Q: What sequence folds into this?
């Protein structure tokens, strides 16, 4: 397996060779084997371990095991302990969602803090097969059947071509110890059912199930890329965009025999689900509409016009009072005073509270908006910023803006304004977080 | 269920209303329920039943049951008894392939003979789900996951949106009798495994499995239509065809990041399977090639050139002697003398044996070929015929031609020549069949 793994890295991830790599390690067989493989191939690695404090002594046992495993090999290990239950209750999240959020936020924080390049996780072919079957048993589109991606931004999954069996054989042959899997995944019950009851029967019928699946996923990924091409090509021919709406030319559209497929591709990202209503709208009378949680699709003579609901209620603003420590609508915010600024991500900002005028307002962008991008001295029109950052129409329509006395404080999740930043004169630091 | 079925017919198959419909009936619950539904809705129906003589008394019991079921309702029933084992052994086919061939050939023969319009079969949602899982457990592309088609030429499957459970409930409520399923499908073992061991577990996890699956299939069919669009659009930009080859412009092709996906789409119908070799060929030196059973893909400087192997061995001809009653290479033929011509399909022709000069030859088409299309008086260039019939390149390259003294007798499976037809002066009729 070591050789196959090395070949796989050389052919698919040759760019990792001189990079600094974190490995996300639970202590289970998959992640421990991943560390062992990369260690033997002399990659520059360090280990990240999350202790979610969910199973008391067992969690601490995992932590101790990971530490000692790494110490024997002189691999640096960074451990973070989380009070997951508290966090989940504070933010009204399920334990699983909370753990995932804590884990990935911390991973990205460590990447930045330590100037590492990538985080490697130990997902393998069986995980991908289980994910396929879970998505399949629900209702899904092609994108739900294309497997776990091998790379997702800074997250890389080099074990995806390997089956659980290969990993187990390797661990035994190399006398590697591990901790029994301690996943807290919400779909553990489901995965166990598939793992123990469904997949063995499929394997009985088709002994090459896993390698067949690997091929199938490759073909489906290729098909997905062609779907995206067709969608993009026809979009250019049939759709026009302006600042706040998109216009679908119906007489061009319905020349396509499969125009419903295109409507589905284009509109699904706007949260529509009532597909039959949308298909009926094509031949409905002018003025009829179909709604998604945030958008309106109107039939207007020979066109479909898609606009944001907010845009159509132009004065809709949400006020945030000084006393509010949490806001739930239209986004979930928390506000808390902190003594110092710390490493952050796109979900939070630190501002000088005394520079704010309450109530703050939360709204969508308007023509004429400008702001002072954080870290720059000048001001910039928001329309120019959107263009430079290659915002799509949906990005523009879904982006919220936090304002103080109609000055932009934060283009939420994107960029804060320089005027409100913390400096040496700041006496009260307010941390604003989107949860 | 009757109402839901009626609505389904009205929305998807409204064109069936005034048509003459055969129903393929085994006597099992699915086909019997289909007859009952269509009978109650007053469609103009007749029943086709195949007795494959594979299970002796049981087969005869099925036949008797179907006859009596139809008699009670005054529905015409046409029964055909086959010696399936003999046929399978004669043509060296598996029992299952033989039964399928006998069934569909006979169905189409009856359609023509009786001037009926369509044949309805009773495939339902569970069949489609099982087919999905069978294809999935093997290696498949998107086309293997888009379910059983609702219509395929003259074959229509109006029960596809209905689950086995719905059909069972309907049969019980309406006190309908049926024969236990007598399928001889080669994948019966596999289907039973899925039906009894796999699908119930998936349903336990996801009670809406079947309706989810129905949605999934719709989405995948839509995706497939977009894949076909992209494939066609890019083909026009990158590929040129001439009479006997296609040329893929590699410098245009590799500008696409997903060019492998296009190569897969374009080349799979030519029988290629060594995909990695083909992908490597893109950067290989001029002159290298990859083979499929019938085709050659050559790298020629900045192009891929695809030609038929036969074309590249221009003199390759297969001779058929007068004594040959069977030919196996390159196609499977049988020759037999018959006393009269009967209803036929595209797989066989009747010729005046005395007009033939043996040995006959079997070859691909050549520039300059012409023939006298059956039923017409004049002659026609083959290149013109191909154009009029909208033959694709692959059609032209895969079509075989049977010649007598270099006169075309039959463009196999397409059109016979008028010069060799049976007429009043014919003394010896030869039936030539492709099996």
A:
């Amino acid at each position: 397996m070591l050789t196959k793994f090395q070949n796989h890295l050389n052919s698919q991830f040759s760019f990792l060779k001189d990079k600094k790599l974190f490995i996300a390690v639970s202590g289970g067989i998959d992640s421990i084997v991943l560390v062992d493989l990369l260690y033997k191939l002399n990659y520059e690695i360090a280990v990240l371990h999350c202790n979610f404090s969910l199973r008391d002594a067992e969690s601490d046992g995992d932590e101790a095991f990971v530490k000692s495993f790494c110490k024997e090999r002189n691999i640096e290990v960074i451990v973070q302990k989380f009070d997951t239950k508290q966090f989940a209750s504070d933010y009204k999240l399920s334990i699983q969602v909370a753990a995932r959020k804590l884990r990935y936020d911390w991973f990205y924080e460590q990447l930045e803090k330590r100037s590492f390049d990538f985080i490697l996780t130990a997902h393998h072919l069986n995980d991908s097969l289980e994910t396929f079957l879970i998505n399949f048993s629900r209702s899904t589109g092609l994108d739900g059947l294309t497997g776990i991606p091998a790379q997702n931004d800074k997250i890389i999954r080099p074990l995806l071509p390997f089956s659980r069996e290969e990993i187990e054989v390797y661990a035994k042959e190399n006398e590697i110890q591990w901790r029994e899997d301690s996943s807290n995944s919400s779909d553990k019950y489901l995965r166990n059912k598939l793992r123990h009851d469904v997949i063995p029967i499929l394997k009985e019928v088709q002994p090459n199930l896993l390698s067949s699946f690997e091929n199938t996923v490759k073909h489906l990924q290729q098909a997905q890329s062609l779907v995206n091409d067709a969608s993009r090509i026809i979009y250019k021919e049939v759709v026009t965009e302006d600042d706040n709406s998109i216009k679908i030319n119906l007489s061009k559209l319905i020349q396509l025999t499969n125009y419903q497929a295109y409507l589905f591709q284009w509109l699904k990202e706007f949260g529509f689900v009532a597909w039959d209503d949308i298909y009926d709208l094509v031949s409905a009378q002018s003025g009829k509409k179909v709604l998604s949680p945030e958008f309106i699709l109107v039939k207007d003579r020979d066109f479909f016009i898609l606009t944001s609901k907010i845009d159509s209620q132009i004065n809709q603003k949400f006020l945030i009072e000084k006393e509010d420590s949490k806001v739930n609508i239209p986004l979930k915010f928390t506000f808390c005073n902190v003594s110092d600024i710390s490493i952050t991500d796109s979900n939070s900002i630190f501002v000088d509270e005394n520079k704010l005028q309450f109530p703050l307002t939360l709204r969508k962008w308007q023509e004429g908006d400008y702001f002072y991008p954080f870290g720059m001295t000048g001001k910039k029109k928001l329309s120019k910023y959107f263009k430079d950052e290659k915002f799509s129409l949906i990005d523009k329509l879904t982006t919220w803006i936090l304002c103080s006395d109609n000055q932009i404080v934060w283009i939420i999740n994107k960029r804060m304004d320089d005027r409100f930043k913390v400096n040496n004169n700041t006496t009260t630091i307010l941390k604003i977080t989107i949860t």
Notes: Chain A touches chain B through 46 residues (CB under 8 Å). The first strand of chain A starts at residue 20 and ends at 24.
